[in-house]
């Protein structure tokens, strides 16, 4: 981890910076990306062992076609990460073909639950499954599918997000055909009842957090995977109820594809396509957005797929709405999360 001096009252080119007491203080920082070469569609949690674990979409990192079946990276401080292995020893067999996309990790019922998509590009019947492990590093035991798109009646059923409140578990999912939710059985391994719609067709990669008495929906819009030309960005809405209706800061319903953009790239940015976020709270109570983005100067993996490394940036709350500083991915060293 990099170190920087906290600025004091006196700073000279010859002697550096000093605090008012004359003593230099050191502060931990991070700089994006925090993990490379790739950890796309990240999901994250702090595990019972005190480490942070992040999980990403299946990708080929090496010089051949072999992919990592949900890569797992681990960190003590959210700034320096190490690759520790794959969540799966073998690809789930309940679908004839497909890659494991957009895993979503949660500690639930004393186990680690990993919800995942199984799909190929242009798939007319992708689906969502779930795997369980006693430890965050796996290997995860596949429990099979929750549903396919045809079975649940929602096109392009990918990008799962698990939520539990008041002894009721939910799954939220969807990709540019509407964002939907459905109740889950108590064990989290099957659906109950009919799906309900949460947001419109501009969105994928849903993530919902509760703050005080309101629920905040984060979703990604635009193109995720066109290298330096990717237009991915994160927009938010809020609701008094988990099931909605959600509206943006101007009052436009997310069901009508409203949404207040809080993280995007522009022509001056080093990064393109920031999105598919998760949210984590550090030990000081500060919220952090965890997401992927694409470095414009090195946008592709050897396979031609977009190279989407792991990024983090802090969230502030202003007038009841989340704000990411400057509304774009940070590029210079920043104050690190408090993790101890």
UniProtKB/TrEMBL annotation:
<keyword id="KW-0378">Hydrolase</keyword>
<dbReference type="InterPro" id="IPR023296">
    <property type="entry name" value="Glyco_hydro_beta-prop_sf"/>
</dbReference>
<dbReference type="Pfam" id="PF04616">
    <property type="entry name" value="Glyco_hydro_43"/>
</dbReference>
<keyword id="KW-0326">Glycosidase</keyword>
<dbReference type="InterPro" id="IPR050727">
    <property type="entry name" value="GH43_arabinanases"/>
</dbReference>
<comment type="pathway">
    <text>Glycan metabolism; L-arabinan degradation.</text>
</comment>
<dbReference type="InterPro" id="IPR006710">
    <property type="entry name" value="Glyco_hydro_43"/>
</dbReference>
<protein>
    <recommendedName>
        <fullName>Endo-alpha-(1-&gt;5)-L-arabinanase</fullName>
        <ecNumber>3.2.1.99</ecNumber>
    </recommendedName>
</protein>
<feature type="region of interest" description="Disordered">
    <location>
        <begin position="321"/>
        <end position="340"/>
    </location>
</feature>
<dbReference type="InterPro" id="IPR016840">
    <property type="entry name" value="Glyco_hydro_43_endo_a_Ara-ase"/>
</dbReference>
<comment type="similarity">
    <text>Belongs to the glycosyl hydrolase 43 family.</text>
</comment>
